[in-house]
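Quick question, first post here. What does this chain look like in 3D?
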Amino acid sequence: MAQDARPLSLAVSEGTSGGIDAATARKKYAPMADRLSAALGRKVEVAFVREFAALEEGMRDGKFDFVIARPSDYPARGLRDYRYQYVANAEPEGHCMLVVRADSPVKSFADLRGKTFVLPEEVAYMTRFCRAELRDKGIDLSKESVFYVREQGAIPFGLEKGIADVGGLASYSGAVRKWRESGQRILHESVGQPYMPVVGHPGLSPGDIAKARQVLVGLSSDEAGQAFLRQLGITGFSAGEEDRLRKLLGWLGV
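> Answer (accepted):
Ran it through. Tokens below.
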């Protein structure tokens, strides 16, 4: 890490579904950066990272002081591969939601074998998440018919047009919210996993990590903090999921 006079960086990545640019990210995450600045006694600047490769490269090179990201596998890589430190994670946790049309004959997990699935790209976090959940429930996706699509928003279309029988969506996606609102059916909600984790640079002191954690957990205690949380689509931050985050990549099989 560079000398203490320099600003600290808060790398922000919302994945391919985030739909924000650098200016929007700076404005959106400014309340978090400002509170971290006050607690740490050093300016914290938001650094928007669009590409996952750049996010991982930045952690590998120790370029980022803090990282907040979805999907969760990248902060998990920070812990496992680049010695980053766990700070906190958002609430509620994330789930794979297996969805079907309201009139689907699929009524339970037992009905899924032999059906056609539609999921995000094969290497996408949520596809790996859904695959791991199905594996744990006894269904091997490599033996099933699966369509992969670039955007989660295309999954409802595939179901509505009869291209596939069951889709996998992130619990925190707009697509699953619209699916519910349209009267369609959620077949299964997976086990939860830590969502939108925050990790800190290996060189940050235990005291600074503790201060950052206190800032995040405390966001839900005042109106301004709650307003910030609402725009992230979360209810707060908690600090008790380090062990589960460290086990996430193994569960995903990566």
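Residues 8-93+194-252 form a domain with the D-Maltodextrin-Binding Protein; domain 2 fold (CATH 3.40.190.10).
The chain has two domains: 8-93+194-252, 96-189.
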